[in-house]
Amino acid sequence: MNAPLAPWASWPQRSRGRRRAEPAAPTRDDFQRDRDRIVHSTAFRRLVYKTQVFLNHEGDLFRTRLTHSLEVAQLGRSISRSLALNEDLVEAIALAHDLGHTPFGHAGQDALNDCMAAHGGFEHNLQSLRVVDELEQRYPDWDGLNLCFETREGVLKRCPLALAQRMEQREPGGVGQRFMLGHQASLEAQLTNLADEIAYNAHDVDDGVRSGLLSLDQLRGVALFERHFQDAMAAHPALTGATVKRQLAETIRRMLSAQVYDVIDASRARLAEAAPEDAEAARLLGPLIGFSAEMKQASADMKRFMFRELYRHPQVVATTEAGRQIIRDLFAAYLSAPAEMPDDYAQAADLPRSVCDYIAGMTDRFATREHHRLTGQRLFPQAD
Predict the structure, then answer these.
(1) Which pLDDT tens digit goes with each residue over 111-167?
(2) For the whole model, what pTM was predicted?
(3) N or C: which end of the chain has fewer CB within 10 A?
(4) Residue-range domain boundaries for the chain
(5) What does 54-109 look like in DSSP terms, one character per residue?
């Protein structure tokens, strides 16, 4: 452990444990083992070729799901250290939180959800849990990574009540129970969820300007960005004549720091006031990790701007629509000809779910190549 833990932190020796008991490791605690299992998983390696906003073939310098996950882990560890929470658990959740994401980002998720409408639907948080619980095949005696309850709980950020009830039947007292009881996740899970928001607000701004789809002038219309842009210019007069790259980097650095310090200060005050006895007591309270009211509004304004000006930009929509088409075509092709998939997927009892698992695990470029192999179409010719 890198620092003393607060009473309300998730202490590894008080973990609710794994679904299958294992002997303790001689040099690592359980949350550290979880982190290491995630890093060595097949699904984690695939994140390097999965879309964040811009598709893999559109440029080597844009964020991917892997770099996003690393940025979330870095931010999460920094915040958790200041709050005396468990850094290793935060890192494990951060590195696993996007393992279930489809190729082609949220467009791929939406397309796969449409394909699965008659078969239980698709949601990437649920798929991330499915990956670590079932789909990874690395151990001789079980499927999945057999992670601790606390890591699995952090991966499952949201869950419909009906599904939570079914999960509770299969795993009494498991990760679905809190959605039925209205309890919170651990403080570390709350923190990681917020670090995720801070990370993509910053790096999507960076990628948006790098792509040419956003300009500094547009961003200066957003209060969160403008405030820190002005501060950067005042602190470093030479930036006035510098490149947009330098101006943007310094502004984003300040914007990130302001959000991190705000979370630390606001959360520290809530924790001091609530003073939960331990991690279990903290779950029974309202959310304790979060922005101040002012920063929460500023962050929401930034998200609305990004949704309007970047995520729904015609150029982004055009490329992601091609991604949707690839997902739809692949689903139809594999459903009608399962033998086109590897045997362990083709022979599964629940074929639609198996097809869904196979497609969700693909990288952007593998999905593109498979689509060309099966249909003869080249929707992203530059990707080949």
Answers:
(1) 999 999 999 999 999 999 999 999 999 999 999 999 999 999 999 998 889 999 999
(2) 0.93
(3) C
(4) 27-173+314-383, 211-302
(5) S-GGG-SSS-BHHHHHHHHHHHHHHHHHHTT--HHHHHHHHHHTTTTPPTTHHHHH
